[in-house]
Amino acid sequence: MHSDLKILIDLQRLDQEIAELSSQIEAFPSQIQAIEKQLNDFIHAHEEHQQHLSANQKERRDLEGEIQLIRQKISKHKDQLYQVKTNEQYRAMLKEIEGEEENIRRIEDRILEKMIESEELQKLVKEAAGRLDSEKARVAAEKARLESAAKASAEERDRLVQERSELAGKLKADVLARYERVRKGRGGLALAEVRDGKCMGCNVLLRPQLYYDVRAGEGIYECENCARILYSREVLSAAAEAEGPQVIAPN
Protein backbone atom coordinates (compact mmCIF):
# COMPACT_ATOMS: atom_id res chain seq x y z
CA MET A 1 0.00 0.00 0.00
CA HIS A 2 1.32 3.45 -0.92
CA SER A 3 2.88 5.03 2.18
CA ASP A 4 1.43 8.52 1.52
CA LEU A 5 -2.06 7.04 1.23
CA LYS A 6 -1.78 5.52 4.71
CA ILE A 7 -0.73 8.91 6.08
CA LEU A 8 -3.57 10.65 4.26
CA ILE A 9 -6.10 8.24 5.74
CA ASP A 10 -4.82 8.90 9.25
CA LEU A 11 -4.74 12.62 8.51
CA GLN A 12 -8.38 12.62 7.50
CA ARG A 13 -9.29 10.67 10.63
CA LEU A 14 -7.54 13.30 12.75
CA ASP A 15 -9.20 16.13 10.84
CA GLN A 16 -12.63 14.59 11.45
CA GLU A 17 -11.90 14.19 15.17
CA ILE A 18 -10.60 17.77 15.38
CA ALA A 19 -13.68 19.06 13.55
CA GLU A 20 -15.99 17.15 15.89
CA LEU A 21 -14.19 18.48 18.97
CA SER A 22 -14.27 22.01 17.56
CA SER A 23 -18.01 21.70 17.05
CA GLN A 24 -18.43 20.53 20.64
CA ILE A 25 -16.25 23.35 21.98
CA GLU A 26 -18.23 25.94 20.02
CA ALA A 27 -21.46 24.56 21.51
CA PHE A 28 -20.33 24.75 25.15
CA PRO A 29 -20.84 28.53 25.61
CA SER A 30 -24.45 28.36 24.41
CA GLN A 31 -25.07 25.32 26.64
CA ILE A 32 -23.68 27.21 29.63
CA GLN A 33 -25.78 30.26 28.76
CA ALA A 34 -28.86 28.03 28.52
CA ILE A 35 -28.31 26.54 31.98
CA GLU A 36 -27.66 30.01 33.44
CA LYS A 37 -30.84 31.26 31.77
CA GLN A 38 -32.83 28.49 33.47
CA LEU A 39 -31.70 29.80 36.87
CA ASN A 40 -32.26 33.44 35.91
CA ASP A 41 -35.75 32.62 34.64
CA PHE A 42 -36.52 30.75 37.87
CA ILE A 43 -35.31 33.66 40.01
CA HIS A 44 -37.16 36.19 37.86
CA ALA A 45 -40.41 34.22 38.15
CA HIS A 46 -39.90 33.96 41.92
CA GLU A 47 -39.34 37.70 42.21
CA GLU A 48 -42.39 38.43 40.08
CA HIS A 49 -44.55 36.24 42.33
CA GLN A 50 -43.19 38.06 45.37
CA GLN A 51 -43.99 41.42 43.77
CA HIS A 52 -47.49 40.28 42.82
CA LEU A 53 -48.05 39.04 46.36
CA SER A 54 -46.95 42.37 47.82
CA ALA A 55 -49.19 44.25 45.37
CA ASN A 56 -52.07 41.91 46.23
CA GLN A 57 -51.66 42.55 49.95
CA LYS A 58 -51.49 46.32 49.42
CA GLU A 59 -54.62 46.27 47.26
CA ARG A 60 -56.47 44.29 49.93
CA ARG A 61 -55.47 46.84 52.56
CA ASP A 62 -56.61 49.66 50.28
CA LEU A 63 -59.96 47.94 49.69
CA GLU A 64 -60.44 47.35 53.41
CA GLY A 65 -59.68 51.04 53.94
CA GLU A 66 -62.38 51.95 51.41
CA ILE A 67 -64.88 49.80 53.30
CA GLN A 68 -64.05 51.62 56.55
CA LEU A 69 -64.63 54.99 54.90
CA ILE A 70 -67.94 53.84 53.42
CA ARG A 71 -69.07 52.48 56.78
CA GLN A 72 -68.28 55.81 58.35
CA LYS A 73 -70.42 57.49 55.69
CA ILE A 74 -73.25 55.02 56.31
CA SER A 75 -73.05 55.66 60.05
CA LYS A 76 -73.19 59.39 59.40
CA HIS A 77 -76.17 58.98 57.07
CA LYS A 78 -78.02 56.91 59.66
CA ASP A 79 -77.50 59.63 62.21
CA GLN A 80 -78.87 62.12 59.71
CA LEU A 81 -82.04 60.06 59.25
CA TYR A 82 -83.32 61.47 62.52
CA GLN A 83 -82.75 64.99 61.31
CA VAL A 84 -84.62 64.92 57.97
CA LYS A 85 -87.93 66.73 57.87
CA THR A 86 -89.74 65.16 54.92
CA ASN A 87 -90.53 61.66 53.71
CA GLU A 88 -88.86 62.45 50.40
CA GLN A 89 -85.61 63.33 52.17
CA TYR A 90 -85.92 60.22 54.33
CA ARG A 91 -86.35 57.95 51.28
CA ALA A 92 -83.44 59.62 49.50
CA MET A 93 -81.23 59.08 52.52
CA LEU A 94 -82.22 55.38 52.72
CA LYS A 95 -81.48 54.94 49.03
CA GLU A 96 -78.05 56.47 49.50
CA ILE A 97 -77.37 54.14 52.42
CA GLU A 98 -78.44 51.14 50.31
CA GLY A 99 -76.10 52.27 47.51
CA GLU A 100 -73.19 52.51 49.96
CA GLU A 101 -73.96 49.06 51.37
CA GLU A 102 -73.99 47.69 47.81
CA ASN A 103 -70.57 49.27 47.28
CA ILE A 104 -69.34 47.44 50.39
CA ARG A 105 -70.59 44.12 49.02
CA ARG A 106 -68.84 44.71 45.70
CA ILE A 107 -65.60 45.60 47.46
CA GLU A 108 -65.89 42.55 49.71
CA ASP A 109 -66.24 40.38 46.60
CA ARG A 110 -63.03 41.92 45.25
CA ILE A 111 -61.31 41.31 48.58
CA LEU A 112 -62.38 37.67 48.43
CA GLU A 113 -60.94 37.36 44.92
CA LYS A 114 -57.70 38.90 46.14
CA MET A 115 -57.58 36.49 49.08
CA ILE A 116 -57.92 33.50 46.75
CA GLU A 117 -55.24 34.96 44.49
CA SER A 118 -53.03 35.61 47.53
CA GLU A 119 -53.27 31.99 48.66
CA GLU A 120 -52.07 30.79 45.26
CA LEU A 121 -49.26 33.35 45.16
CA GLN A 122 -48.15 32.44 48.68
CA LYS A 123 -48.01 28.80 47.62
CA LEU A 124 -45.87 29.63 44.57
CA VAL A 125 -43.55 31.87 46.59
CA LYS A 126 -43.11 29.25 49.28
CA GLU A 127 -42.40 26.47 46.78
CA ALA A 128 -39.89 28.60 44.85
CA ALA A 129 -38.16 29.71 48.04
CA GLY A 130 -37.79 26.07 49.04
CA ARG A 131 -36.31 25.15 45.65
CA LEU A 132 -34.07 28.17 45.15
CA ASP A 133 -30.98 26.81 46.88
CA SER A 134 -31.26 23.42 45.16
CA GLU A 135 -31.74 25.13 41.78
CA LYS A 136 -28.64 27.24 42.36
CA ALA A 137 -26.67 24.14 43.34
CA ARG A 138 -27.95 22.18 40.32
CA VAL A 139 -27.07 24.95 37.88
CA ALA A 140 -23.64 25.47 39.48
CA ALA A 141 -22.88 21.75 39.22
CA GLU A 142 -24.05 21.53 35.61
CA LYS A 143 -22.11 24.68 34.70
CA ALA A 144 -18.96 23.25 36.34
CA ARG A 145 -19.44 19.99 34.43
CA LEU A 146 -19.79 21.81 31.12
CA GLU A 147 -16.77 24.01 31.80
CA SER A 148 -14.72 20.94 32.72
CA ALA A 149 -15.86 19.15 29.57
CA ALA A 150 -15.01 22.22 27.48
CA LYS A 151 -11.52 22.35 28.97
CA ALA A 152 -10.97 18.62 28.40
CA SER A 153 -12.19 18.91 24.80
CA ALA A 154 -9.91 21.89 24.15
CA GLU A 155 -6.91 20.00 25.56
CA GLU A 156 -7.73 16.94 23.47
CA ARG A 157 -8.11 19.10 20.36
CA ASP A 158 -4.73 20.74 21.03
CA ARG A 159 -3.18 17.29 21.33
CA LEU A 160 -4.75 16.15 18.07
CA VAL A 161 -3.71 19.35 16.29
CA GLN A 162 -0.13 18.70 17.35
CA GLU A 163 -0.39 15.09 16.21
CA ARG A 164 -1.84 16.28 12.92
CA SER A 165 1.00 18.72 12.42
CA GLU A 166 3.55 15.96 12.96
CA LEU A 167 1.70 13.62 10.62
CA ALA A 168 1.27 16.25 7.90
CA GLY A 169 5.01 16.91 8.09
CA LYS A 170 5.63 13.39 6.80
CA LEU A 171 3.90 14.16 3.49
CA LYS A 172 5.46 15.72 0.45
CA ALA A 173 4.40 19.34 -0.01
CA ASP A 174 2.52 18.67 -3.23
CA VAL A 175 0.61 15.72 -1.75
CA LEU A 176 -0.36 17.73 1.34
CA ALA A 177 -1.42 20.69 -0.81
CA ARG A 178 -3.52 18.34 -2.93
CA TYR A 179 -5.19 16.91 0.18
CA GLU A 180 -5.89 20.35 1.66
CA ARG A 181 -7.32 21.64 -1.61
CA VAL A 182 -9.77 18.78 -1.93
CA ARG A 183 -10.67 18.82 1.78
CA LYS A 184 -11.63 22.50 1.68
CA GLY A 185 -13.67 22.05 -1.48
CA ARG A 186 -15.49 18.89 -0.35
CA GLY A 187 -16.86 19.67 3.08
CA GLY A 188 -13.83 18.45 5.00
CA LEU A 189 -13.63 15.00 3.35
CA ALA A 190 -10.74 14.67 0.95
CA LEU A 191 -10.76 10.85 0.76
CA ALA A 192 -13.47 8.46 -0.35
CA GLU A 193 -13.76 4.70 -0.40
CA VAL A 194 -14.29 2.78 -3.64
CA ARG A 195 -16.92 0.08 -3.53
CA ASP A 196 -18.71 -1.92 -6.22
CA GLY A 197 -16.91 0.07 -8.90
CA LYS A 198 -18.09 3.43 -7.52
CA CYS A 199 -16.66 6.38 -5.62
CA MET A 200 -18.67 6.45 -2.39
CA GLY A 201 -18.02 10.18 -2.05
CA CYS A 202 -20.09 11.14 -5.09
CA ASN A 203 -21.65 7.75 -5.96
CA VAL A 204 -20.36 7.89 -9.54
CA LEU A 205 -19.04 4.81 -11.40
CA LEU A 206 -15.29 4.77 -11.98
CA ARG A 207 -13.52 3.72 -15.12
CA PRO A 208 -12.60 0.02 -14.79
CA GLN A 209 -8.88 0.77 -15.05
CA LEU A 210 -9.05 3.45 -12.34
CA TYR A 211 -11.02 1.12 -10.10
CA TYR A 212 -8.41 -1.58 -10.63
CA ASP A 213 -5.54 0.82 -9.89
CA VAL A 214 -7.14 2.01 -6.63
CA ARG A 215 -7.68 -1.56 -5.50
CA ALA A 216 -4.09 -2.37 -6.30
CA GLY A 217 -3.10 0.27 -3.75
CA GLU A 218 0.19 1.20 -5.34
CA GLY A 219 -0.49 4.86 -6.01
CA ILE A 220 -2.63 7.87 -5.14
CA TYR A 221 -5.62 8.34 -7.42
CA GLU A 222 -8.44 10.84 -7.57
CA CYS A 223 -12.08 10.43 -8.50
CA GLU A 224 -12.49 11.96 -11.93
CA ASN A 225 -15.87 13.39 -10.88
CA CYS A 226 -15.43 14.80 -7.35
CA ALA A 227 -11.60 14.87 -7.16
CA ARG A 228 -11.52 13.03 -3.84
CA ILE A 229 -8.51 10.81 -3.18
CA LEU A 230 -9.62 7.20 -3.45
CA TYR A 231 -8.80 4.21 -1.28
CA SER A 232 -9.90 0.58 -1.08
CA ARG A 233 -11.00 -1.01 2.17
CA GLU A 234 -9.56 -4.33 1.01
CA VAL A 235 -6.14 -2.70 0.68
CA LEU A 236 -6.52 -1.23 4.18
CA SER A 237 -7.40 -4.63 5.61
CA ALA A 238 -4.42 -6.25 3.92
CA ALA A 239 -2.11 -3.52 5.23
CA ALA A 240 -3.52 -3.91 8.74
CA GLU A 241 -2.88 -7.64 8.69
CA ALA A 242 0.65 -7.14 7.46
CA GLU A 243 1.65 -4.28 9.76
CA GLY A 244 -0.74 -4.47 12.72
CA PRO A 245 -3.70 -2.18 13.57
CA GLN A 246 -2.02 1.07 12.53
CA VAL A 247 -4.30 2.14 9.71
CA ILE A 248 -7.83 3.22 10.58
CA ALA A 249 -10.25 3.88 7.77
CA PRO A 250 -12.11 7.20 7.95
CA ASN A 251 -15.85 7.06 8.43
Per-chain topology:
Elements: H1 3-81, H2 87-168, H3 173-185, E1 191-195, E2 198-199, E3 204-205, H4 208-216, E4 229-232, H5 233-243
Parallel strand pairs: 1-4
Antiparallel strand pairs: 1-2, 2-3
Characterise this structure:
- This protein has 251 residues and is mainly α.
- The chain has 2 domains: 13-168, Helix Hairpins, CATH 1.10.287.1490; 173-243, no CATH class.
- The protein is 77% helix and 5% strand.
- It contains 5 helices and 4 strands.
- The chain has helices at residues 3-81, 87-168, 173-185, 208-216, 233-243, and strands at residues 191-195, 198-199, 204-205, 229-232.
- A 4-stranded mixed sheet has the order 3-2-1-4.
- Strand 2 (198-199) and strand 3 form a beta hairpin.
- Helix 1 runs antiparallel to helix 2.
- The longest helix has 82 residues, at 87-168.
- The protein is rod-shaped and about 125 Å long.
- The two termini are 19 Å apart.
- The model is unreliable at 245-249 (pLDDT under 50).
Produce a short descriptive summary.
The protein is built from five helices and four strands, in the order αααβββαβα.
Features:
251 residues, mainly alpha, Helix Hairpins, 2 domains, four-stranded mixed β-sheet, 5 helices, 77% helix, disordered C terminus
Number of structural domains: 2
Order of helices and strands: HHHEEEHEH
CATH architecture of the largest domain: Orthogonal Bundle
Q: Shape, please? A: rod-shaped
Tell me the β content. Answer: 5-15%
Q: In angstroms, what is the radius of gyration?
A: 40 Å
CATH class of the largest domain: Mainly Alpha
What is the count of β-strands? 4
Terminal residue distance: 19 Å
- Estimated helix fraction: over 70%
Number of helices: 5
How confident is the prediction overall: mean pLDDT? 92
In this structure, how is the largest beta sheet organized? 4 strands, mixed
- CATH level 3 topology of the largest domain: Helix Hairpins
Largest beta sheet: what is the strand line-up? 3-2-1-4
Question: What structural class do you assign from the helix and strand content?
Answer: mainly alpha
Unreliable stretches: 245-249
